[in-house]
Structures
1.
Amino acid sequence: MDSIAKIKVLLGKTGLDSQNKKIRALARGLREVGDMEVIYTGLYRSLEEIVDESISNSVDVIGISVYNGLHMTVFPELKQRLAQRAGEKIIVFAEGFIPPQDQKVLVEAGTLARVFSPSASTESIIEWIQEAVNLE
Amino acid sequence: MEELGRKAMAGDIRAASRLIRNIEDDIPETNRAIRHIFPHTGRAHVVGITGSPGAGKSTITDQLIYTMRQREKTVGVLAVDPTSPFTGGALLGDRIRMLRHAEDQGVFVRSLATRGSMGGLSKAVGDGIHVLDVMGKDIILVETVGVGQQEVDIINHAHTVLVVLVPGMGDEIQAIKAGLMEIADIFVINKADRDGARKLYKETLNMLDSGHFPSGWRPPIMMLESCLEPHSFAAAVEQLCDKIEEHHRHLVENNQLQERATRKVITEINDALRSAILEPVLNELAATGEFDIMVKQLMAKETDPYSLAEEIAKRYMNK
């Protein structure tokens, strides 16, 4: 019998950004792994809702998909809201279109743990999540 | 762990979430936290909501939260999601609608993934209810899918049980016969504007007519029409909420709350025994590889399950 503890991941999208094909596939993929539980928030969530759902479910990882260019606003605000709710230890990653120079800024500031481009494979994301959580 | 229990009792959402997470992960020390909070439990009115997937449980729950908040009750929600038996993973979050209460401090919504086996789910739900209870929630809604034995076990933790039916699912009545009939306190026919609602209503009514109700409570049948008509839907859920309160009053006035509480503790001790006795044995058998050997023996028809079980029982029970 394998260990019962699982990695909890919240995946979601915020604001009016409705490109959700990749994040839905990812939710499905993570579920199939077996050692993860995925909470998919669906579209049009406010950051407040995302943070609340993350805290009330004690997630380990948050993955937000951003395709509308608002990443420089979304992620710092998300991080700040998490800190307000004592959730600064939650690992946050991004999926979507984020220019390399912005990626660099966000990752170096510790706002994001990692950015995955739309072409990143589900397997690579799964592997990264497992490693990142085990390092904690 | 006691610290988490204490914080949860003070209403700390993060501590409560963590505690429930530990319950899900089945961390043994969690029992200590439960020991700490157990004496303070038993205040909340626990309402179970069950029905087939797609019956509209989440929508009803969402509206119930709203109505109960209007009535100045604080609400905790445990939404139980099944873990895939094939991969062990789970996709939660089918309660997107409920997020509208995210900013309300009087509401705490929590998904509970169902892991492990054999009553593990029921135990997690029971403990989860305790946590919400000591957080001071007046009403705890436990939402669960389906009508199997596991769900009946879960529902044993509730004081008031809603069974949600929808027209056009032929197996509904069969499912009820199979066990939920005894456990339903209120029947809800959702999507009652659809074809077949009258028929379903009549069938449920006939079934109730042939039942007898020693408790003095005959389950009412409530009809809810499309949630896309917000006003009529809200009004119908108001009535449903009245019925829930009426049932609670009935339990209190007829000393039946005690019976429900007894049913709850019986379930709890059963779950606790299972986790203290059966699970360690099974884990050990699995770890030593003996379990696989037994499976092979059975496949080869060298022995039978009962002889094997007796053998194991003798070894572990010192008799």
Note: The first helix of chain A runs from residue 21 to 33.
2.
Amino acid sequence: MDKDILVSYIPLYKNALLLTLKIGWQGIGLSMIIGLAGAAVLHFKVKVIKNIVGIYVELFRNTPLLVQLFFIYFALPKIGVNISAEICGMLGIGLLGGAYMIETFRSGLETIPVMQSESALSLGLDKRQTFLYVILPQAFSAVVPGLTANIIFLLKETSVFSTISLMDLMFTAKDLIGMYAKTIECLFLLVVFYFIMILPVSIIGMIVERKTRYAEFGD
Amino acid sequence: MKKTILSKVKKLTSLLLIGLMLTSVFTGCTTTKADSSNKKTVYRTLKEIKKSGKINIGVFSDKSPFGYVDKNGKYAGYDVYFANRIAKDLGVDANFVSVEAANRIEYLQTGKVDIILANFTVTKERAEEVDFALPYMNVALGVVSPSNKVIKKLDQIGAKDEVIVISGTTAETYLTKNYPKIKLQKYDAYAEAKTAFENKNGVAWANDNTEVIAFAKENKGYTVGISSLGDNDTIAPAVTKGNKTLLKWLNDETKALGKESFFHKNYEKTLVDTYGADYEEILVVEGGKVK
Amino acid sequence: MQSLGIDVLLKGSNFSRLLQGLYVALEISFVSVTISILLGLIVGVLMTLKNPILCFILKIYLEVVRIIPQMVLLFVVYFGTTRVFGMDLLAETSAIIVFVFWGVAEMGDLVRGAIKSIPTIQFESAYALGMNKFQVYVYIILPQTLRRLIPLSINLITRMIKTTSLVVMVGIVEVLKVAQQIIEANRTTSPNAAFGVFGVVFIMYFLICWPISRLSIYLEKRWA
């Protein structure tokens, strides 16, 4: 491996990392919003919308992101819906992630027995207090592992951005290999930068998981 | 295909271990095992190819009219026509491997194909990585844009405009080097780049002029505003660096084919529908001799 | 508006080629998933053994798989092996190696989770009855784990199928590549083919993955 080449490529990878992070996290933000809204719809069993959410979840959980992005980016403009690559990437991650987040949040809400809110209410807490101090902390701790897993999954999925011309980490590596054929250096940096991007999330996830465990019931 | 996959299964346990080792090499950070000194030769000599009865040729599968797959699933186009002739004269079967612009060098250097015949422009940088045979086509760069907003000069491109290029092509390298301010929108595959261009994701598409001329001829509403940019280059077959026997055979073949005007015939079979007769003398290089 | 390009699929052998492409992708998934499940069972059991060195190695393995995208692994194995070891791998072989490498970790983790979910008291009672470690695993733990595992492994199949779409990146002519080729070959006659063809690919994936994931959910509910 050539050190000079590694050093000269680092700025390019850094830019790619920033872009990947930007679009990735925007998408993850969107997926959480979709997830919360969808989980609420399913939890409270809102008529009709419940079914739409159900179809959406099935559609996006059962198709590859690559195919989804191809469809959004290359096929939709044919019927007049034209969106930029960045928005498309964000939407792709957001929609795919949303389908997973809904499941995560919903199962989080379901882990809390009805008895808990009943006891809280009978102890004299009002509804707001019950939700804030009893339900939410427990639901949160139940959701954390799933949430971390989803975020890591989505950050990894950003690697398919390259197919819609977004200069993410994967694309930068492929592009440099195509232009200068320094394969080993490019692949090495690629792996290193994915570690830089995802390892912190993995570690933070573990810490948060430990810290919130107090809210768990027993064990 | 089915059998090759299944027969590989048996070896997989051992290969899995290699995968594990490899990852540890890449993640171990400190161990730089990438020593190229004691590398085995990856290419197959002429003899080995003949003996195996099959030659692996890397072509495009989405770059009409040079290398594409027709509606019956058969490879076709100018490059493919030549490739078929090579296989025939070698007395072997042609096995076409679908490549992308950005991984053409990679395929040769890893011995995954014997020859690249994928509209491969000869450049100095590439010649350091692979060996080019005699050329069979002329090429320069060109830029195509929608007819209602033709780009005739590169300085017409605004700071916010994006130009579509294909990753790993000479257009990409040329623009990156000479016009670093122009924003490029890069795609892996020709099909994707063209679809994106049709979808108006970029103000123009820069590529080999052959390709952009063909695009403007085949699709209404597009004009080639810049038909010759940069140097006049040639397109040639490429083999893995050091594969002398195959290289020599290819050169002899190209010269011999010149005697029967093979590439003119090829043009008339595959390109004339797109370009008409006017471009024949401009594009075709016969017998490996550039005029 | 012109036709949306679905008619393109009816021309020549286009549709059957698309199906063939899908078959290539599915074949790679099924080979990978079968090996992953078998090896994953072993790795999963290894993870529950309290051997510190083994635990450490497996942890690193899991973390690597967790962090590096499959697409990156695919590139590393496909292009990297030749560079580093001078050996040439078929694209299909590299894809299977990568998916197995990933699948074994996933499966192993599922197995570990399933074993962990079996109360310690079962181990203890079995030991108290005079069984050895091997017997405990084979007769007591595994039968129970398997039941919990089957829905999860079925779910792994759909994830494997979805991930296999990435192999288009290492030049395997699977369904997406065929789709691109069809779009390219018909660009002049039906410029909107991208919509129809990519739409059909989307639906194809859904029609394959959806029943499998429903089955997994059904079994999970039934056997829970």
Note: Residues 143 and 193 of chain A are 28 Å apart (CA to CA).
3.
Amino acid sequence: MNCRECLAELSTASLREMQPDSAVMQHCATCADCASLTTRLRELEYNSASALNNLLPLTSPVGLAETSATLSRRRRVGRLVVTMSGIIGAIIIAVVASTMMVPQTIWNGITGSVSASELRTETITLTCLSPEQAGEIISPYVRSHGSVYYTPTAGLSVITVRGTAREIQRSRDLLADLEGDPGAACHNPADADVADMKRRADEDAARPELAGTDVRPTPAPMPAPRPKLAPTGH
Amino acid sequence: MRLNRFEKRKSREGGNDEAVVYRDRASYALDAQLASLAAAGDDSAFTTLVTRFQPAVFRWALIFAHDPDEAEDITQEVFVRAHRRLADYRSDGSLDAWLYRITRRTATQLRRTRRRRGRLVMSPAAQPQRDVYTTDPGARVDRQRAAEVIHHLFTGLPQRQREIFDLVDLQGLSPAEAAERTGMKPVSVRTNLFKARKTIRDGLLATHPAYGELSR
């Protein structure tokens, strides 16, 4: 074994398990550098162990035991208090829930009212009806507690409905039915008026004159101009 | 109580291996008896228990702590927890291994707590107003020396490595015993031990003339 191998062994080997006839120790017997290094390593560990082992705590064991027992009992009581507080808190919450929230739920079930979390808000686009008309149409169907509809003031053709999913669906279907009907009065009101006027005029023309109606007499046809006669020789 | 490495060697040289075994068994039985009495509320049994184990717990705490004062705090906390949990102690295991586990957990938790409160500790209001060792200069010197040893040996070592190095190389446990006590695998213990030894010894080995060849 040379110094290099000895150092490699010393860097991680256990000095305690190193036997006198081991290769490292045999090398140390012939190499002063390695021998002194091994001795210093042993001294370092011995001194460290001694320093740590010989250092005694300053606190007296009797005082430490008394303090530990007192603190332990205090913590036990503290933990008991915390546990009891938790249990009492849970009981209070349960009582409050059973006396206030559960009856409210039951009451809601009886009256049909719904909680705010069940309400949704949706905006329905109108193509034909005005928002006021739409509001009048859906008003009887949006009746549950908290349900409402909004008509915009800025002239937009929409209506915003807040209500239960069922109410919103009902309103949507109703408005879609009315707006999809081609015969509905709201479809192109200007064109409808013109067609209506034409239809009435045709009907009037085909209808016989009625007494008292203001019918203008048809002017008589003008007689054809008489041709000039040529002068005769009389 | 467990003997340290050098005491063990002495007893081995004297051929007292069997005596050591019997002493260990007797001490285990005594510990178990004391623990059961203390768990039943016997304060004097608990005091005896503390008297027997305080130096050992303090010694273990020194490895986890930065200085002896912190080790004192850990020791106090360990015995508070031990008192509370004595009913959970099963007498078939050794009491010192049980206390060692509590020490380990306590030290880790206290260190975490202190790290969180680090800013408060740094404030001038948190500094002690008097020197607590003025009445005992000898103890002060010992503590300074221990603090230097801890600083010199363990600075730069992770907690696991310093723990394993102390258990095996300074306290004299075998790697298997250290693995059992720390709950680590034997392979991990050996790996940590080799790393710790290398870190600690490298500085000293560097003074050897042939070290340059080794490090190449």
Note: Chain B touches chain A through 56 residues (CB under 8 Å).
